[in-house]
Amino acid sequence: MKAVMLDKITEGRDVVLSEVPIPEVRPGWVLVKVRAFGLNHSEKLLRLNEIRGSHIQKPIIPGIECVGEIVDPSDTDLTVGQKVCALMGGMGRSFNGSYAEYALLPRRIVFPVESDLPWEALGAVPETYFTAWGSLFECLRLAPEDCLLIRGATCALGYAAMQIAKALGCRVTATTHRESKLPLLADADEAVLDDGGLTGKIHGVTKALDLVGPRNLRDTLTAVDKGSIVCQTGLLGGVYALNGFDPIKDIPNGVYLTGFFSNYPTQKVMDELFAFLSKTNLTPKYGKVFDFEHIKDAVSSQDEGSADGKIVVKC
Predict the structure, then answer these.
(1) How far apart are CA 179 and CA 301, in angstroms?
(2) Helix, strand, coil percent values for the chain (each to nearest 5)
(3) Is the backbone peptide bond immediately before 59 cis, with ω within 30 degrees of 0?
(4) In angstroms, what CA-CA distances link 246 with 222, 261, 315?
(5) 311 with 298: CB under 8 angstroms?
(6) Is 187 strand, coil or helix?
(7) Per the confidence metrics, is the pTM higher than 0.90?
(8) Which pLDDT score is estimated for 234?
(9) DSSP conformational letter for 2
């Protein structure tokens, strides 16, 4: 089969397809024919930095998500030809991931899917929409009467969160730090140019999804109304920790801070997510779609930031 193999720092322009054996099935693992997969920021971090770490099995096939069909279910309860999605749980880091024609995956991260969506639309769902769903409902406890702030909304996760929140009936205030991207937030009730300071400039926010991360988190906490919940999920700001963060002083009285870690998907949550998409007639949003043989172009587009929305690769 063809696959992307990484063993060192690799720019998008240097990504190549290699010929490798189709994995042999073993107990508790299933072989999936990959039909599509989305590109994620964490894979970019792997290619450009984390690949140097001793905790990464090398060479490694990257890719933390995919959709496809079961080729060999091994000793599991799945069946040949069953439509599935898979995500996280060490995929693309502890064991080979989805940048390949076939993926050998542990049963615990493979979830049967009932959907009539085309493969490219289905490929936009697993990690992005699972993370949006968990952030909005498990962490923010989003309700139709809420006004949701999405900080750093012009990314795949931001678009997904906005789509879900609007379908639920919420009012959405969305931000971007680039004026040229304000038109991309047309689905929001309010689009705001973010200069790093939102406190005093927005009003009525009851829930906030912060995708910028620690760089602006203190400001997000003071920009929302008393009684609000803030969920910090993304790290778009390039700052990964808050040195000197004082929870007593930096979290305003009556404001709640939480975060969503997407490493533990379950069949129950994936069923709820796909049922919601079906019930609300939502078509997952994505930006560019590339064929697998053009994976270099897809990854280069990711590095350049030239795609507005999720990049999907169709196999």
Answers:
(1) 21
(2) 30, 25, 50
(3) yes
(4) 14, 22, 48
(5) yes
(6) coil
(7) yes
(8) 87
(9) E
